[in-house]
Automatic annotation (TrEMBL):
Protein name: Sigma 54-interacting transcriptional regulator
Organism (species): Paratissierella segnis
Highest rank taxon of the organism: Bacteria
GO MF entries: ATP binding; transferase activity
InterPro entries with a match to the protein in the record: AAA+_ATPase, P-loop_NTPase, PRD, PRD_sf, PTS_EIIA_man-typ, PTS_EIIA_man-typ_sf, Sigma_54_int, Sigma_54_int_dom_ATP-bd_2
Domain PTS EIIA type-4: 585-720
Keywords: ATP-binding, Nucleotide-binding, Transferase
Sigma-54 factor interaction domain boundaries: 118-352
SUPFAM superfamilies: P-loop containing nucleoside triphosphate hydrolases, PTS system fructose IIA component-like, PTS-regulatory domain, PRD
Keyword ATP-binding: yes
């Protein structure tokens, strides 16, 4: 019997005495690692390790707390007559109890504000909720209200919450009804609308065979929602005057006397209220609330909607739903014209497709991956690079998928499913190995891991005081022992001397809390390390040396034995914290003629990058160059941090400034003659990198792909008149995924997409004959160009091959096709082949290291053309390198393209097949993949069409 089996059997024996009454009475059930250790005579550390493994195997439930408790899952299932499929780790005993006794939606406390349930309560809807509350609280019976907003923003739901709030605060009776009437249902029959609202008297019109009460009487004492109120005819609006002014009305056809009704009216419309409602009617509705469209709300709130809708589907089908990373990204980024309503409908439809797949293949859970996505959602991924940082902050780094499980809490569970403070070391090691195997650069790996450690530090600080960024000592000592804090403070003072830098107070606090948690883990036997963590840390030799000193000091001061592997974490901690103040940066100045040209560019760049590092100097035409030089010298002195200053200028004469500035100040400067916004963004971004030098920055900006961010000149006066979008199709023989990458490239290359209403549409088209099945006739009519590897042969539409886009004049041709003029940009200097390919691959590839990928595929190309005895052309090289790089990235994700009758194709081209396979041996070995015959078939076609 293994040690794990002994531990499990012991827990099973101890769990036998737990009763249903224990659960119902919320007794602290479960057994800690020390109890299990004593019961089995197995060391506490080993017992804890095996128990955590049993939790991962879903045989044991874990309840966090002091101490951590464990209980056999099967025992709990039997007691509650369920088969629990949720997460086996609970953050507290209260969470454990709540998961088995979920509250119904109606069990809300009488004291709970109904608006708190709305997504955006403390965010984008904070102001409109205050308006709604004010309307419902206004004495004596609230204010009539109009809710405006686009279709699908949730106007009806918002009105329903207003009704609940009115009952909550006593404006209306809690039994008061919420009655909904859609004015558009009877829009063509005004008489019928009035009958529905006010009721009618027998004989008042043809078909009125008896007296009938209207909705106003039904809503007496409550709220009447008039949806699509813009369809209410003028006479209907006028008939409401008496009701709104004096709480009286008449049924249709009545002439004597009035009826009484106390009704609060809420109107909802998508239209401009000033153009569709009577002014006299509007004056009686003093409160107007506008609900923003989904695209105007923050992504964090959209994520909450997505989580909520997936959780609703989980509860509908009683099956966990696994949602892959790119699916969530697509839902966060796609153009959801129908707002929240469409988002919910799209998720429901997707889950329905996934449920069919789940039933068909007898899967354990519903899986939602990108092949399920309709095109309008999939195209959201085109915007990923624009919002990459925001998405990473929302979703974390490189999670493969997210699992939604049945729960009364809107909780998103990631594949890692770890508590950062417990498994930080394993997480660092796993990520390092994961990205290293896939060819990520050391710089990129360190960036990812550094963010995780920074996130860990922030979580530690939040535990101390959520209202302050950094707690004071009195607050801190409620959680951390003063002895630990003082020991850490001494250790960091020594580290400061060794590293020659000063740490912030937040660093002392964060490390003190980490060491405090470490001491608890040592006691609980949870210090499980992977030796490779120190291999990672050795990349930072100075911090590594300081970390070893910190460990020694802490061991002496706290009289504890700290595992040597902790040095690895301490190294990365020292390398990450306070990084923004750790290195000097290259200064950047934009100089441009005109009253506000430079400052406009600088403002955009700073806004996009979230910095103030881009400085701007405007040069009015009536100001002398000598005066501008003096202003520039002053600014250079002001911003230089010791690494020099980089100038981006709009005229060749200004390129002489660096030499003059150096002679007058001794500060090294350099300049490049370009001020296009994309290039300035790239310059500022690179200037902030710690390893960047002024000479390297100058070379990189000079050699940047000349087609990326090209400025468009000429007569642009007609661009505002463009209504119908012009469409540029991107195609690739290897499917839509590659077409999307080409679309990414175009988005970066064309700076005028929004100005000219250009829509770049990646299409999954095998050949020109099935275009009508993918595009409507109206869309085909608006196509101005096709870019990629497949010419769709659309009449009067140009085709630009991928190689022309990269190394030819493809962008210039595309500009002319769209705006009717050629770009006036002059390319003074072309990058080397390697730099050009790497720059473009960096924008096309998702996770491969572009330099590594280019070097391997290029060697493969040289080998293959020598084996085939054919001429090396740049066009062929471009197509081969980009095709193979995308292929490798697909294969690493197990995405293999089919090829019809591949066996016959290989037999007909057997010699070429063998040579292609031979040329790819090194690619397969380095990336750890096997390139299947179907993929080889496409490479054969690439060379066979010469």
């Amino acid at each position: 019997m293994t040690r794990k089996d002994i531990i499990f059997n012991a827990l099973k024996t101890l769990s036998e005495d737990v009763t249903i009454e224990d659960l119902r009475e919320e007794l602290k059930i479960g057994f800690d690692a020390e109890t299990i250790s004593n019961f089995t005579n197995i060391g506490r550390s080993n017992a804890s390790r095996e128990l955590n493994q049993l939790v991962r195997e879903r045989r044991v439930l874990k309840i966090e707390g002091r101490p951590v408790r464990f209980i056999e899952k099967e025992k709990v299932d039997k007691l509650l007559s369920i088969d629990y499929e949720g997460d086996c780790t609970f953050g507290s005993f209260e969470d454990f109890v709540a998961i088995f006794t979920p509250q119904s939606p109606d069990s809300m406390s009488n004291d709970q504000d109904p608006f708190e349930k709305i997504i955006g309560y403390k965010g984008s809807l904070e102001l409109v909720i205050k308006q709604a509350k004010a309307a419902m609280l206004y004495p004596p019976k609230g204010l009539h209200t109009l809710i405006t907003g686009a279709t699908g923003v949730g106007k009806t739901t918002f009105a329903d919450i207003m009704h609940k709030y009115a009952g909550h605060v006593g404006t209306i009776d809690k039994e008061g009804k919420f009655v909904i009437f859609n004015c558009s249902e009877y829009a063509e029959n005004p008489q019928l609308i009035l009958s529905q609202l006010f009721g009618h008297k027998k004989g008042s019109f043809t078909g009125a065979e008896e007296d009938k009460a209207g909705l106003i009487e039904k809503a007496d004492g409550g709220i009447l929602l008039l949806d699509e109120i813009h369809r209410l005819p003028p006479e209907g609006q006028e008939m409401l005057f008496l009701l709104m002014d004096k709480n009286i009305f008449r049924r249709l056809g009545e002439t004597d006397g009035y009826r009484k009704a106390n009704v609060l009216i809420i109107g909802a419309t998508t239209e401009d209220i000033n153009s569709i409602l009577l002014g006299t009617f509007l004056r009686r509705i003093p409160m107007v609330i506008n609900l923003s469209s989904l695209d105007k709300r923050p992504l964090s709130e959209r994520l909450e909607f997505i989580e909520t809708f997936f959780l609703e589907e989980v509860n509908n089908v009683n099956v966990p739903i696994k949602v892959y990373r790119d699916v969530l990204r697509a839902f966060l980024l796609y153009d959801c014209k129908g707002n929240i309503g469409q988002l919910k409908g799209d998720i429901q439809l997707l889950c329905a497709r996934g449920f069919l797949d789940y039933k068909t293949y007898n899967k354990r859970e519903i899986e939602i991956d990108t092949p399920f996505l309709p095109e309008h959602i999939y195209n959201g991924l085109l915007s990923y690079n624009k919002k990459r940082e925001e998405l990473l902050n929302l979703l974390g780094h490189e999670k493969d998928y997210y699992i939604f499980r049945q729960s009364n809490k809107a909780k998103l569970i990631t594949i890692d499913d770890y508590n950062l403070s417990d498994n930080l070391y394993d997480e660092i090691t796993e990520k390092y190995n994961h990205y290293n195997e896939r060819g990520f650069s050391e710089v990129k790996i360190n960036e990812i891991i550094s963010r995780d450690i920074e996130g860990y530090l922030k979580k530690l600080l939040k535990r101390c005081n959520t209202k302050k960024d950094v707690p004071d000592k009195e607050e801190l000592f409620k959680i951390v022992s003063p002895r630990v804090y003082n020991a850490v403070e001494v250790a960091l003072i020594v580290a400061e001397q060794k590293l020659g830098r000063k740490f912030k107070y937040r660093t002392v606090v964060g490390l003190a809390m980490h060491i405090s948690a470490l001491m608890e883990r040592i006691v609980d036997g949870k210090t499980i390390y992977n030796e490779e963590i120190n291999k990672i840390a050795i990349n930072n030799p100075n911090e590594f040396g300081a970390a070893k000193v910190i460990r020694e000091i802490l061991q002496q001061e706290l009289e504890i034995e700290i595992p040597k592997e902790e040095v690895g974490f301490l190294t990365m901690f020292l390398s990450t914290v306070d990084l923004e103040e750790e290195f000097k940066k290259i200064g950047v100045i934009v100089l441009a003629h005109g009253e506000s040209t430079a400052s406009s560019v600088g403002k955009v760049v700073n806004s996009l990058l979230g910095t103030d590092h881009c400085n701007a100097i405007d040069m009015p035409l009536d100001v002398k160059v000598e005066d501008i030089l003096e202003i520039t010298i002053k600014k250079v002195k002001e911003i230089d941090e010791g690494k020099g200053v980089f100038l981006l200028v709009d005229m060749g004469s200004l390129t002489a400034f660096p030499e003059i500035i150096y002679k007058k100040t001794g500060i090294i400067t350099s300049s490049v003659e370009t001020i296009s916004t994309p290039v300035v963004i790239e310059a500022v971004r690179k200037s902030l990198l710690p390893e960047m030098t002024l000479s390297s920055l100058t070379d990189e900006i000079k050699s940047v792909n000349p087609y990326i961010g090209r400025m468009v000149s000429g007569d642009l006066k007609n661009k505002v008149d463009i209504l119908d979008p012009k469409i540029v199709l991107t195609t690739c023989v290897t499917g839509q995924g590659a077409a999307i990458k080409i679309a990414h490239l175009l988005e970066n290359a064309l700076s005028f997409i929004q100005e000219y209403n250009i829509k770049i549409k990646p299409v999954d088209i095998i050949n020109k004959f099935n275009i009508n099945s993918v595009l409507s006739a109206e869309e085909i009519k608006n196509v101005v160009a096709v870019v990629g590897t497949i010419d769709l042969c659309i009449p009067d539409v140009i085709f630009i091959p991928i190689d022309e886009l990269i190394i030819g004049d493809g962008i210039k041709v595309l500009e002319k096709a769209i705006i009717g003029i050629e770009s006036s940009s002059i390319v003074k200097e072309r990058a080397s082949d390697e730099n050009m390919f790497v720059n473009v691959l960096e924008k096309m590839l998702t996770f491969l290291n572009p330099t590594k990928a280019y070097n391997l595929i290029n060697k493969s190309f040289v080998t293959l053309i020598n084996l085939l005895g054919i001429k090396d052309t740049k066009q062929l090289k471009v197509r081969y390198i980009f095709h193979c790089c995308c292929m490798v990235e697909r294969l690493l994700q197990n995405d293999i393209l089919p090829y019809q009758n591949i066996e016959n194709h290989i037999q007909n081209k057997l010699d070429m097949y063998k040579k292609v396979k031979l040329s790819l041996v090194n690619v397969e070995e380095v990336f750890g993949i096997v390139i299947p015959d179907t993929e080889v078939g496409y490479i054969i076609d690439l060379f066979d069409t010469l």
